[in-house]
C-alpha cells in the first residue's frame, strides 16, 4: 500500500495535466500514515506548502497540528491532503477544470488509504464532496453517503484552520468540532457491521446521506438536515 502511494506521488511530481503544473515550485502530494483512519482534506497548497512540498505547514498548518493534538493524535497518525496538488497562483481558488484534472489523484489516495473518516477542511473541500452545502450549516456535522469511487463513506465537516486563525470564536468552534472526531470514529466502529449490510445504525447517531452522490441538484439542505449525525 505505501508503494502505491509512492508511485502515485512520483506521478504527481511530474504531472502537467493542468496549468497549475507550470506555475508550481513543487507539487504537494500529501503526507501521513498510509493506513490512517482519518484523512483531512483541504483545498490546495499555499506559498509555504509550494516551497516545502508538504501540506499545511504555514500558520494554518500549525493550528491544524494543535487541533489534531487536542484529540490525542499527531500528524504522523493521520493523513493530510488537498483537492489540488499544485498551488494556484496568488492563492486564488482552483478552477473547475484544474480540480477535475487533479481529482483522480485524490481519489486514488483515498482508495488506497481507505480511511474510516474523511474530514473536510473548509468550504472548498466541502463543495467537492457535498456540493451546494454551506460550511456554516454543515460544520460540526458528520454524515455518511455513497460516493463515486469510494463507496459508503463517512464525512465530517469543519471550518478551514485558516478561517479560524484570526478569529477566536471560530477557533473555539473548530476545537469543539475536532473534539467530536473520536466519538464519530467510535460510532463508525460500532455501526460497521450494520453499515456494511447497508442498514441504518439503530441509535440514530449515524445516518445515511440519501441523495445521489453525482446529482448536485438533488442535494437539498432538507435532506442533509434529516440525515445529519451530530
Ligand atoms: S494540480 Fe494536479 S492535475 Fe494540475 S498539474 Fe498539479 S498535480 Fe497535475
What does this structure look like?
The chain has one domain: 3-Layer(aba) Sandwich (Uracil-DNA Glycosylase, subunit E). The protein contains eleven helices and seven strands. It is an alpha/beta fold. The two termini are 32 Å apart. The chain has helices at residues 2-13, 20-23, 47-52, 59-70, 96-113, 123-129, 135-138, 161-164, 168-178, 181-196, 221-227; strands at residues 31-32, 38-42, 79-82, 117-121, 142-147, 151-158, 208-209. The chain has a seven-stranded mixed sheet, with helices on both faces. It binds iron/sulfur cluster. Iron/sulfur cluster binds next to helix 2 and helix 5.
Helix-strand blueprint:
Elements: H1 2-13, H2 20-23, E1 31-32, E2 38-42, H3 47-52, H4 59-70, E3 79-82, H5 96-113, E4 117-121, H6 123-129, H7 135-138, E5 142-147, E6 151-158, H8 161-164, H9 168-178, H10 181-196, E7 208-209, H11 221-227
Parallel strand pairs: 2-3, 2-4, 4-6, 5-7
Antiparallel strand pairs: 1-3, 5-6
Helix pairs in contact: 1-5
Bound molecules: iron/sulfur cluster.
Key structural traits:
binds iron/sulfur cluster, Uracil-DNA Glycosylase, subunit E, 230 residues, disordered C terminus, alpha/beta, 11 helices
